[in-house]
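User: Thanks for the earlier help. One more: Alpha/beta fold hydrolase. Can you show the sequence and predicted structure together?

Assistant: Of course, both are below.
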Amino acid sequence: MDNRSSTVSLTTSSDGTAIACEQRGAGPALVLVGGALCTAASDAPLAGLLAADFTVYTYDRRGRGGSGDRSPYAVEREIEDLAAVVALAGGEVMVHGMSSGAALALRAAAAGVPVRRLSVYEPPYATGPEARTAHLARTRRLRELLAEGRAGDALAEFLRAVGMPDEALYGLRRLPVWADMEKLAPTLVYDHEVLGDGTVPVDVLASVTDRVLVVDGGASPAPMREAARSVATALPRARHRTLTGQTHEVAPHILAPALAAFLAE
């Protein structure tokens, strides 16, 4: 199969929600779990690089792209979604999670989803003394804005929180891509729910028995790197690696070889 091409399929989660998946490549099965505002299409560049060695599955998390959604939301439903994709891929596969997708992958592994090996990139936990209060306040604010039908304002709130300057946000809101991003805004609450109270879930991570590679970027903000180190410390069988010069927006051609080397061990 051409690494740039993919086959599209649907699987069904435990609550009946349809989850859209893409498959490319050949080799051991690897599932990619995207972060906030990401879809299967967002993960295509990394999937294409890894498809030389793996059968790579990307999917639209619920409420995104070609996947369905049901209310009320619960993190357990997203764990079931990932379990359905893992089952589609053959069961007991390898998993890589990015950002909030990393937090979801870790929670799924802790919940017993059969994962043979796991890698995560910069799960966005906070480690400062006021982290929990700030995270819960931001989650409430997103819920309020979305309940008022202000998806664009909720999206802007999130982007400011992750460091986008107002000048850049002003320009982005005037681009055609803004409308597509705004459609994903309701799922921002899902990402915040996956993170729990926003702090490193030490008790949850202690129950993950799989081998885990925790990766961060050498040019990422210090709190992001500190969170990655804290996650690696809390996991029983973890290895920590820093990719020199990379940020939270890691370059696929830099990340892919590091993942491939670990997953092939």
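User: Great, one quick takeaway?

Assistant: The domain at 7-127+200-263 is CATH 3.40.50.1820 (Rossmann fold).
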